[in-house]
């Protein structure tokens, strides 16, 4: 680029040649004729003499119409690239690089992400429940879920996909509470899955937005709009209706699902404080490792003696060693993959789409679990489940619209308003 600029520098009494420049361009491009150029007066008021560009006129071999439409800066950039080496300027360099499939069809790619997320989640829930039918040890199964995921992460780090982010004592202190809540919520979900029907557990877990709103209001001190509270009323009513007539109802399954809701709510609270700047894949990997350490002691203390005495023996006698081990491996792999794909999916969409996607996922899981396992549900349970899901949908849509409005309003503020707001925040500590 430097040599190009020196050849094109304006000198009053000396003709300039760019034949050396033209020799580096593709054979399809040539320069001929020379024409004087008379620049206009500069700001200094001095009139420059005529400047000649000697060489040949541009011959494009059918590309005249393309080059004439290109902006000067693009032609200069191509010329600079040619000046930096002996490579020819190819047609793709001038016409622009072709777009990838994801750039041409973003909606199709996002739809594929959603489909993969739902598919993996449904398969996980079905396989997980089938394992509990002959191996009812949710604490140990929870450990297997995390162990397979951690192994997957360690292998990925070893080959650099992704590259492992470093962690220090401060980051460990920030991520540990998140991992503790994740471990408790995960174990309690599995206890509920083992005790009651999958559809019923997911119906109870539809109450999670209620606990989230309550924690935001009374723990974090955030003011929740009245419209959000009203949208949660159908959720509470629907879950109550479904619980009263659910055929698989028992207090262990109900209580475990409720504890899971509370745990995941506090996980969200602590996650807001865990803004480490680390990418989501590495954060989830570290959380999985720490959560695994939390899950090991209760699995050993609560289920260890039973497993050693007759748990493993009974399961192998029912399905065989190969199927037993493969089932445990695949439920762990599907658990990790659906969480990973869910993170990748939700990073691609707006909050409103995120909200709708989460609700539809729960509908898919409940529907498929009823079909696969043939669970009989009463009419009241079906109506209550539908009301609860509709309430979650309304809540999610209202919340997403409020968040989008806040984002737009903040983006429309001028710099002085933003600066004054930041000053007030700092003054208030």
Please explain how this structure is put together.
With about 425 residues, this protein is an all-alpha fold. The protein contains 18 helices and three strands. It has helices at about 1-5, 20, 65-70, 70-85, 90-95, 100-105, 105-135, 140-160, 170-195, 200-205, 210-220, 225-245, 250-270, 280-320, 320-345, 350-375, 380-410, 415-425; strands at about 15, 35, 50-55. Strands 1-3-2 form a three-stranded mixed beta sheet, with no helix packed on it. The model is unreliable at about 1-95 and about 415-429 (pLDDT under 50).
Order of strands in the sheet with the most strands? 1-3-2
SSE string, helices as H and strands as E? HEHEEHHHHHHHHHHHHHHHH
Cα-atom radius of gyration = 32 Å
Oligomer: single chain
Q: What is the structural class?
A: mainly alpha
Short characterization:
By secondary structure, the protein is mostly helical. The protein contains 18 helices and 3 strands. α7 packs parallel to α16 (351-373) and α10 crosses α13.
Q: Characteristics of this structure?
A:
429 residues, mainly alpha, 2% strand, globular, disordered N terminus, disordered C terminus, transit peptide, Sugar_P_trans_dom, phosphoglycerate transmembrane transporter activity, transmembrane, transport
What is the element layout, followed by pairings?
Elements: H1 2-7, E1 16-17, H2 19-22, E2 35-37, E3 51-54, H3 64-69, H4 72-83, H5 91-95, H6 101-104, H7 106-134, H8 138-158, H9 169-195, H10 198-205, H11 208-218, H12 226-245, H13 251-272, H14 280-319, H15 321-346, H16 351-373, H17 379-411, H18 415-427
Parallel strand pairs: 1-3
Antiparallel strand pairs: 2-3
Helix pairs in contact: 7-15, 7-16, 8-9, 8-14, 8-15, 9-13, 9-14, 10-13, 10-16, 11-13, 12-17, 14-15, 16-17
